[in-house]
């Protein structure tokens, strides 16, 4: 039976006509549409199974949003410490979460915005499939990467920005006549994407430029007609470029720039490693690699479509070049680029998405079977994430309980000796101490508020003492006599093993008795260190 309920499978021409004319939410018929949005809904619901999301950078961004919300109160102590830079390239997540946090708890507010990313990325995929006339059911093959590598690392602003710019790309690719109102909406969306994330915007604009150039080169109209069409398509994209230029010069004048990864610029892996480990770089959430395996099945279905290609299907030439551009960018752009970390890994989303758009349809009967198998891939990815978040909730219960009971509004140092949840592939808990600031106020020793280019950051004269470089990765560098340790004197610790053994002696040595135990649950401990007395012999401090 055909996907839309008919007895005979659609021809390629019929399927393309349906893809171009069906409502934007349609995924190839009633049953497929219901299954797709159930999968997207399951991912969004799964986010609420655990109070703490296991996304590496996410707690830091949530803390920034919470600080921004508190600064709405004229009497908030945060006003004395922090200032805002909302006209930046990295503000949408923080502003949206702060706005929701006016009426909702901070964790709920954050998850609503993360859900917004998931929905927008799904919508962008469907709009691209409609604009290019590709099989709508292929949206299921995008589901595994919606919660892929960038998501696992908590790059929610990047995901939001890229999703918005992919919606803009769909408007660039759409060949239907456009009114001035349409162009104004395109310009507004492009500026919104630039405000959300600069790198996501740059990658989206890379594809838009390829699309405009290729179409101008491959269309058969007179040169003047092609040039005029290219100019009309590109003009709505210029305001976002102007916005980025204005922000760049403004932040440069105000010294609101940070190049914390500048020393590592160009750091990369070999191209063959990128090829071999592609599915791991595209997913990277689950420790058991189930998400990578599901994605591999989806990519296999695209290969089957190519092997059983219907000769009547001619994908627009622009789609081939979008895929080529994405693959080349993935191979040549390094791990650290533009003073930003984890760059080539983020491009895996575009490689998969452009492959979904470009790969030709199979012959009608084989195409119907491939569509059914694609549905299985999308539903499996959603179910995998749902079960994953259930495991995360169990593994983070003690952490959430401890943070809830900690004293409020304090200065916290995080000593996370085992920064990993067993369900996750990444070192998920590196920034978990920032959840304290998000929920309880106060400050944390390692904080994104030290990054001046972010929308909320310390005032220059209120910057507290710095912890050692890469301290969050190396808790063994902690010294109680250091200036930052004296400033951040409430310690949130996670031990390597849940053996109930008091860790004070191993961290504070002969000062252990001067450190007060505040809380202990499982691997998690909270200590007060302001009672440590100065050592009478400085050599003891040095060689402790």
Task: Explain what this protein looks like in three dimensions.
- The chain has about 550 residues and is mainly alpha-helical.
- The protein has 24 helices and seven strands.
- The chain has a five-stranded mixed β-sheet with strand order 3-2-5-7-6, covered by helices on one side.
- Strand 6 (about 515-520) and strand 7 form a beta hairpin.
- The longest helix is centred in the C-terminal third of the chain and has 32 residues, at about 365-395.
- The termini are far apart.
- The mean pLDDT is about 95.
Indicate the proportion of strand residues. 5-15%
The overall number of domains is 2
Rg calculated over all Cα atoms: 25 Å
Order of strands across the main sheet: 3-2-5-7-6
State the major sheet: 5 strands, mixed
Mean pLDDT: 94
Task: Give the strand tally.
Answer: 7
Distance between the termini: 75 Å
Helix percentage: 40-55%
Helix tally equals 24
Low-pLDDT segments, ≥5 res: none
In quaternary terms, these chains amount to single chain
What sort of overall outline do the alpha carbons produce when their principal axes are compared? globular
- Helix and strand content put the structural class at mainly alpha
Topology:
Layout (H helix, E strand, L loop, with lengths): L11 H10 L8 H17 L11 H13 L7 H4 E3 L7 H10 L4 H27 L10 H4 L2 H4 L3 H18 L6 H17 L1 H21 L4 H12 L3 H16 L17 H6 L1 H5 L7 H18 L9 H16 L15 H11 L5 H32 L1 H9 L5 E6 L17 H7 L2 E2 L11 E3 L24 H5 L2 E5 L9 H5 L7 E6 L2 E5 L9 H6 L1
Parallel strand pairs: 2-3, 2-5
Antiparallel strand pairs: 1-4, 5-7, 6-7
